[in-house]
Amino acid sequence: MRLKLTIAYDGRPYNGWQSQPDGRTVQDHLQQALGEIAKQPVSIHGSGRTDTGVHALGQIAHFEAPLPTTMNPNNWLAALNSKLPATVRIMACEAVAQDFHARFSAIGKIYHYDICTDPVLPPHKAGLAWHLPRRMDAQLLAEALHCLCGGHNFHAFAAYRGNETPAMDYHRTIHVADLEALADGWRITFGGDGFLYKMVRLLTGAVVKVAQGKLALAGLTALLDQGPGLPRGKSPLCAPADGLYLQQVIYPVGRCRD
């Protein structure tokens, strides 16, 4: 039985999602919990990485329930939550078709980024929002976000892991780039068919620079659709991990269920 997990976590205590030798990642904690329940090693596959300090409301992962087992999805949900730290929770567990894959079946993702503009960042928001008490022009912020929509080469908004090749494709399509007013600031939401490494944080940093009057809209649009052979610069700022949340992973309708 292949099981799909919907996972929420506070990213502050962890070195991101991806398993690492030090064992201080969300994936490591999940695999440890699965191993304790199954009494054998169990591998789990995520929809993609989140970096150190990045949060998730709807990370998706899947694993194969080892045989023999009499546990149903509700049993697995309860058992896993009893073994996991309080900052990681399985929000849903369901059986899916054997050809479902958390990463390769996904057709899009939605992220949101929270910015607190209050003069003082409340202590319960430390690590959960980017504190920007400086004045920002909301109209310019919205216009900058609008410029990012559609299909573009986002090479200028990608960080590097060291495994890049000339053949890498930096084209992505952003379907949603919305601005929402919060009681203490702003929420930026990005939805698209996929995102490059640190792309959301680099996009957020750039639109904030526009809203602060430190980058012209023309300068922002000039960064789009450039490749390695058209160097016109990189995003002027990578926003911190604090305010970033993986909100949802999108799959084709009816694709997930067995």
Give me a quick take on this structure.
The chain is of the alpha+beta class and 258 residues long. The protein has five helices and ten strands; from the N terminus they run E-H-E-E-H-E-E-E-H-E-E-E-H-H-E.
- Unreliable runs, pLDDT <50, ≥5 residues? none
Report the β-strand fraction as a percent range. Answer: 25-35%
Number of strands: 10
Principal-axes shape call: globular
Residue share in helices? 10-25%
Your description of this structure?
The protein has two domains: 2-105, Pseudouridine synthase I, catalytic domain, N-terminal subdomain (Alpha-Beta Plaits, 2-Layer Sandwich); 108-248, 2-Layer Sandwich (Alpha-Beta Plaits). The protein has helices at 26-38, 73-83, 138-148, 199-211, 217-222; strands at 2-9, 45-46, 55-64, 88-96, 108-116, 130-131, 150-153, 171-182, 185-192, 244-250. The protein has 258 residues and is α+β, with helices and mostly antiparallel strands. The protein has five helices and ten strands; from the N terminus they run βαββαβββαβββααβ. The N and C termini lie close together (10 Å). Helices cover 21% and strands 28% of the residues. Strands 1, 2, 3, 4, 5, 6, 7, 8, 9 and 10 form a ten-stranded mixed β-sheet that branches.
Descriptors:
alpha+beta, globular, 258 residues, 10 strands, Alpha-Beta Plaits, ten-stranded mixed beta sheet
